[in-house]
Amino acid sequence: MTALTGDGSDGWDVFYKARALKKQGHPIIELTIGEHDIRTHMDILAAMGRSARGGHTGYAAVPGTEGLRAAVARRIEAQSGVRTTEDNILITPGGQSALFAAHMAVLNPGDVALYCDPYYATYPGTLRGTGAVDRAIPCDPAHDFQPRATYLEAAAKGARSLLVNSPNNPTGVVYDRATWQAIAKTCITHDLWLISDEVYDTQVWQGKHISPRSLPDMQERTLVIGSMSKSHAMTGSRIGWICGPVPVIEYLTNFATHTTYGVPGFIQDAAEFALSQGQELEDEVAAPFRRRRRIALDLLTQQNLVRAVPCSGAMYLMLDMRATGLSGEAFAHALLDAHQIAVMPGESFGQAAAGHIRVAMTVADDQFSEALAVLLSFAAEICENKRRF
């Protein structure tokens, strides 16, 4: 446990500082974490209540209810075109639990586990928690943070698994087909397991979401992580899944029996109801982020100082602040102090995003527009002061 995170600052000091100021009564605008500004749809909560009042409050089947597993399988098959049944699905208490379980399935202590930098904050600790040795693959801003074939090849020697995330948190990038082909080639050449974190698969603004399980020769070496958190604003319900080869799912079910012992039945019933509402509900949950992306792009085109990494998916903007001469962390602290707007430094997500900030599009449209305009004006002010002095 003591080895999950490294020594020193984890880059989240701005977040902790903003939360402390907010607790003291300061009007902080939080553009930090990926939490919807809408709550779980009342119809989903009504379905949850009906199930609980109907008695589904005891132990549920550890791999998940048949209904939910079948619903998840249908959704994955429809999206990917790959034949999928409930036997390919394990229901988990959220995507984070699924990430840990999936890596426990494919790694032995001491194995090398790969992930891409920038990365979602828990990735390195999740890999270390399995007893693996974590190894980051740098994804540089010059190539829009997409992993490059040469870097994949160099990192893969002696490794056992590769963790990828598209649409990507923190960058908002959607991997293109060439990137996926390079990833697949690396996995096949070096006999790697691929863990594909696809929790943002309903938030694609440009391009197309590709699940690597659909690529040639990848189905039997890929574990897909999914969740209801982002697609249906069910973050607090803690409901996710792993999709993979049947033998692996059987072992993972045994693992779940000895760790989580399943997910509450009434929450699973609510998730099954939510999935039954189809793409219409998913589009409704995603719509605010699509609007705010448009707002952001309009504001960014009115200046030429701050560059946005192509925001093709997810609920985030990754902004290049290097023209200000400040690190992402320094700019984020200065912005919070001067204007009570909290954003995440790129350094919070690895060294590849140094000099960048991540902006979560998670406040109302008018407040988001105003906050981003202030941010851009503040960056221009910093540059002007630097030129003057």
TrEMBL record:
GO biological process, one term: amino acid metabolic process
Cofactor: pyridoxal 5'-phosphate
Enzyme class per UniProt: transferase
Pfam family, one: Aminotran_1_2
Catalytically driven reaction(s): L-aspartate + 2-oxoglutarate = oxaloacetate + L-glutamate
This protein's UniProt keywords: Aminotransferase, Pyridoxal phosphate, Transferase
Iron-sulfur as UniProt keyword: no
Documented EC number(s): 2.6.1.-
One Gene Ontology MF term: pyridoxal phosphate binding
Source organism, top-level taxon: Bacteria
Entries under SUPFAM superfamilies matching the protein: PLP-dependent transferases
Aminotransferase class I/classII large domain span: 28-374
Family membership: Belongs to the class-I pyridoxal-phosphate-dependent aminotransferase family.
PANTHER family given in the database record: ASPARTATE AMINOTRANSFERASE
Protein name stated in the entry: Aminotransferase
Species this chain originates from: Planktomarina temperata RCA23
Gene: aspC3
